[in-house]
Design a protein that fits this description.
Gyrase A, domain 2, alpha+beta, Dna Ligase, domain 1, 19 helices, five-stranded antiparallel sheet, single chain, 30 strands
Length: 663
C-alpha cells in the first residue's frame, strides 16, 4: 500500500491549476487508503496543522504538503487544489516559494505518508530541519529579504526573480523597482557606496555640523598611537569599509589593547585603512528612514546571558541558542550567539571564561558590539524617540539618494533631544536590515517592510501598467492595438508575440519561448503598456509570466488558454468569441463582451455586458437594448479581429487613464 507521485512540474507563474507559482503533480494510489480518518490522525502527529477531516486523500496530501512548505515559519504559501480524476488519482497543485525547497518538500511529504501507511518509522524531525536549513540558504532565506517579499505579496505587488541579475523585480515597466533586501535600483550607486567608507562618512557628518566621534584613518600602528594621544582613551577601532559590526573593537583602554586590535585587523586582510576614534558612551540605537522619512527606532544591546549560579557561560549560551527567538531563520527575532575569538576575548576583559559559573541574576555581556547579526538583542523604542532625534535621522537622509537608510547612534537617552543630551552618530548604512523592526526581541512590531512597499507603490495599481493579452495576435491587429494605447507622445507601448518583441513600434528581438519575451518586455524601464500574445504551448510549458491583465481577447482559445480569462483584473474586460462562450472562472466585476461576427445573438445573453457585431457593414456594439456604431479600424482584417480592434480602440483611452491617475 503506497502513494505515488509523477508528472511533477514547477510553474514559475500562473498556470492551469493556480494563479500563483506552483508545483503541480499527479498523485496516485489513493484508492489503497482504507481508513482516511486514521491516516489523517497519524499525519497530524507530525503536522498538527494538517486537516483533521479531509474530503479525500488528495486534499490531505496537498494540505499536508502546504504545511511542510510553510516550514514552521508561517511562510506565505497558502493556495492548493486537488482534483479527483478517478481510480484514486488526483491532479494536485500547491503554491510554491523557493523551487528547490518546494520540490524537496514534496518528496519528504510523500515519504512521510508512505512510511505512515506501511507502519514504518520516519525521521521526520531530521528531514524537516534539513528543509529549514535549505530554505535558509535559498534566495528567500534572509530575514530582511523574506520580509520584503512577504510585504509585496500582501500588497498584491507583482514580483519576479531575475536570475541573470540576481535581483527581485517588483512591478512592471516604468513602474518597476529592482533590488535585493533593502538595496534598490532607485538608490544612487555612489551614495550607497559612500556609506561603506566610514572615514568619509565621518568627515561628511562633521562638515554638516552633526555630532560624530573625533578620530582619523590610520594605515599603520604609529599613526594609531598618535591619534590615541590626541583623542585619548577609551577608543574604538574599525575598518574603513565594513558593515554589520564586523571587525569593530570598542572601549579600548590602553596602548596594548589598541595594538592588539589594530594588528588583528591588518592580519584579517584590511587594507583600505583603519579608523581610530573616540569611544562614545551610550546605548546603541538604529534609526531607520524610508524615502527620507523616519519610520522606526531600535535600541540594541549586545548578546548576553544571565547567570543562574549553576551553569557555565558556555552552557548558558547553548541554552539561549535553543530558545524560540534564536531559531536563526527567516522568521526569528534573533540570531544564534556564536562563540569565536572576539567573544572569548571580551569575556577575558571581564575576568571571565566560557567555563565560568556566574551568580544568579548577573547579566554578562558577550560582545562589544550590539549588531543583531552578532547575536544582539533588539528593543523597539519608536514611540520613545525625541522629535529632534527623528528629525536628525531625516536630516542625514536628505543628503543621500538612498531609499532605506540606517543611522546608527549612541545615546544615553533617546527620549531626550540630541541638542541637550549626549548623542553621537557612529555610522550610516545603506541597505539596512529591517526584519528586526518587524519582530523585535522586546516591544511592539513596526511594519517596516509594509512601509517600504507602500512608499514604492502607494496602491497595487502603482506597480502595474496596462496589459492586453490575446490567444492569437496578427501583425495588423497588434499594430492597431499598440497604436490605440499610445495616447500621447512619449508613452511607450511594447508587445511580445510570435512576431517577436517590439518596443514603441520597433523590432527589438525574438526568442522562441514566450516566457523570456514577456520577461524582457516587462523588464523594460520605459514601458508604459504591454500587448501580449500567449500561445497554448507556452502556457503549457511555462505558465504566465505576468500577473493579471486588464484585457483578454480570446478568438478560439484552447483549453490551456482559458486561464487568460481567469487571470484578469476585477475591473477588466474579456472579449471572447461567441462560439467560445461561456467561459468559466471569470472574476466577478469583469466586463464580458462577445465578439459575434455571425450575428448569432439578437440580444445580450445573460452573463455578458455587450455584444460586438457587424451591422450594415460596420462594427457596432449592442448594450442592453441600445446599438451604436464603433469606429471602424479601417484595416484588412478577419471579421472577428475587426470587431475586437474596434472595441479595443474605443476603450484604450479609458484603460490608459486608469493608470495615468496613479503616476
Amino acid at each position: 500500500m503506497s502513494l505515488r507521485v509523477d508528472a511533477v512540474k514547477v510553474y514559475r507563474g500562473s498556470n492551469r491549476m493556480l494563479s500563483t507559482k506552483a508545483i503541480c503533480f499527479r498523485l496516485s494510489g489513493g484508492n489503497s487508503v482504507r481508513d482516511l480518518p486514521a491516516l489523517a490522525a497519524a499525519i497530524r502527529r507530525y503536522l498538527p496543522h494538517a486537516p483533521a477531516e479531509p474530503a479525500n486523500v488528495g486534499e490531505l496530501f496537498a494540505r499536508s504538503l502546504l504545511v511542510v512548505e510553510q516550514l514552521d515559519m508561517d511562510l506565505a504559501v497558502k493556495e492548493w487544489v486537488a482534483i479527483p480524476v478517478g481510480d484514486g488519482t488526483y491532479e494536485v497543485a500547491v503554491q510554491l516559494l523557493d523551487e528547490p525547497t518546494g520540490e524537496d518538500a514534496l518528496y519528504v511529504t510523500l515519504d512521510l505518508f508512505n512510511a505512515t501507511l506501511e507502519g514504518r518509522d520516519f525521521p521526520f524531525d531530521r528531514e524537516f530541519k534539513r528543509l529549514q536549513r535549505g530554505f535558509d540558504r535559498s534566495l528567500y532565506g534572509g530575514p530582511t529579504i523574506y520580509s520584503i517579499v512577504e510585504a509585496g505579496f500582501r500588497a498584491g505587488i507583482p514580483m519576479a526573480y531575475l536570475p541573470n541579475e540576481n535581483v527581485f523585480q517588483w512591478g512592471y515597466g516604468r513602474r518597476q523597482v529592482r533590488g535585493r533586501s533593502t538595496t534598490l535600483s532607485i538608490d544612487s550607486i555612489k551614495d550607497t557606496e559612500f556609506t561603506c567608507y566610514k572615514d568619509m562618512v565621518k568627515d561628511f557628518l562633521f562638515d554638516l555640523g552633526l555630532p560624530t566621534p573625533r578620530g582619523a584613518v590610520c594605515h599603520d600602528l604609529s599613526q594609531a598611537l598618535r591619534v590615541a594621544e590626541e583623542v585619548g582613551f577609551p577608543l574604538v577601532v574599525k575598518p574603513v569599509a565594513g558593515h554589520k559590526g564586523q571587525g569593530v573593537t570598542t572601549n579600548i583602554r590602553s596602548s596594548r589593547e589598541l595594538e592588539r586590535a589594530f594588528r588583528g585587523l591588518l592580519a584579517s586582510g584590511v587594507r583600505d585603512g583603519i579608523i581610530v576614534e573616540a569611544h562614545v558612551t551610550g546605548f546603541d540605537h538604529r534609526l531607520l528612514t524610508v524615502g527620507g522619512r523616519f519610520v522606526a527606532a531600535l535600541k540594541r544591546e549586545p548578546a548576553y546571558v544571565i547567570g543562574d549560579g549553576e551553569h557555565t557561560i558556555e552552557e548558558l549560551i547553548d541554552q539561549e541558542n535553543e530558545t524560540f527567538a534564536r531559531r536563526d531563520n527567516a522568521r526569528s527575532a534573533l540570531t544564534k550567539i556564536r562563540i569565536d575569538d572576539d567573544l572569548i576575548d571580551y569575556l577575558r576583559l571581564q575576568d571571565l571564561r566560557l567555563s565560568s559559573v556566574v551568580k544568579k541574576g548577573v547579566k554578562v555581556f558577550l560582545r562589544r558590539v550590539a549588531n543583531i547579526s552578532a547575536g544582539g538583542v533588539s528593543i523597539n523604542v519608536t514611540d520613545e524617540i525625541h522629535p529632534d532625534n527623528r528629525k536628525l535621522a531625516e536630516d542625514v537622509a536628505a543628503f543621500l539618494k538612498v531609499h532605506c537608510l540606517g543611522v546608527d547612534v549612541l545615546a544615553d537617552d533617546i527620549s531626550k533631544s540630541w541638542r541637550e543630551s549626549p548623542l553621537s552618530i557612529i555610522e550610516i548604512n545603506a541597505g539596512p536590515g529591517v526584519f528586526m523592526h518587524l519582530v523585535p526581541a522586546q516591544g511592539g512590531s513596526v511594519d517596516v517592510p509594509g512601509t517600504i512597499m507602500r512608499s514604492l507603490f502607494p496602491t497595487r495599481r502603482h506597480s502595474r501598467i496596462p496589459i492586453v493579452v490575446f490567444d492569437r495576435l496578427s501583425t495588423t491587429l497588434r499594430e492597431i492595438v499598440c497604436g490605440a494605447l499610445k495616447t500621447r507622445e512619449g508613452f511607450v507601448v511594447g508587445s511580445a508575440s510570435r512576431d517577436g518583441l517590439f518596443i514603441d513600434g520597433a523590432f527589438f528581438s525574438k526568442k522562441e519561448a514566450q516566457w523570456h519575451q514577456v520577461a524582457s518586455l516587462l523588464r523594460h524601464q520605459s514601458l508604459d503598456a504591454a500587448v501580449i500574445e500567449y500561445p497554448e504551448k507556452d502556457i503549457v510549458a511555462d505558465g504566465l509570466r505576468y500577473s493579471f491583465a486588464d484585457v483578454a481577447c480570446l478568438f478560439a482559445p484552447a483549453e490551456a488558454q482559458r486561464i487568460l480569462a481567469r487571470d484578469l483584473e476585477n475591473d477588466g474586460w474579456l472579449l471572447v468569441a461567441a462560439d467560445a462562450w461561456p467561459i468559466g472562472g471569470v472574476p466577478e466585476g469583469v466586463t464580458i463582451v462577445l465578439l459575434d461576427p455571425a450575428r448569432r445573438f439578437d440580444a445580450v445573453p445573460e452573463g455578458a455586458r455587450a455584444v460586438v457585431q457587424p451591422w450594415r457593414g460596420k462594427p457596432t456594439i449592442l448594450e442592453g437594448e441600445t446599438r451604436r456604431s464603433l469606429e471602424d479600424p479601417g484595416a484588412s482584417l478577419p471579421q472577428d479581429e475587426r470587431l475586437a480592434a474596434a472595441f479595443l480602440v474605443e476603450i484604450a483611452p479609458t484603460l490608459v487613464a486608469r493608470y495615468s491617475d496613479q503616476r
